[in-house]
Amino acid sequence: xxxxxxxxxxxxxxxxxxxxxxxxxxxxxxxxxxxxxxxxxxxxxxxxxxxxxxxxxxxxxxxxxxxxxxxxxxxxxxxxxxxxxxxxxxxxxxxxxxxxxxxxxxxxxxxxxxxxxxxxxxxxxxxxxxxxxxxxxxxxxxxxxxxxxxxxxxxxxxxxxxxxxxxxxxxxxxxxxxxxxxxxxxxxxxxxxxxxxxxxxxxxxxxxxxxxxxxxxx
Length: 218
Description:
By secondary structure, the protein is mainly alpha-helical.
């Protein structure tokens, strides 16, 4: 077995083992906003730093980002929670990117050279318009956040474009979910209702941007 294929298999095996461990142990009981908030707040003044590290690791392990973000808002409030989330998510997304590139990129390059012109065209397209592509995919989450992290690492997109597009693109959604988390215990207040309204608006954002794009093309 060649080295490129072996590294790719190791990457797949790593995630398969984590999914099995997560599914058949008690770990999934801790993946809810209240449990995560309680864990983080035990660290006192270090809580924001612990949350950032937890978010980064959770992102690399493909844990649900929305739950982690809500936990941040619940623990630190809307603004600080959002700032910590943006830092943690960007670090985690970058870590996922490098992990995929280290263990999967060689395999993809070999495959596209020998098998697929379509993969080669997609790869070349992403490399020439990487920032715009990542920014659009972060703002319009057609591809799930954690999936995009690893898929991007398999392409030849420039690292700077990927990191900057991720950092900017996650800001709107992060603030919406963090604000929701900050008001989770009081959803019937005006702030709670505003949080629900923001999440609803966020869910319609992809449709609005798609329609705007069609109008511009037309």
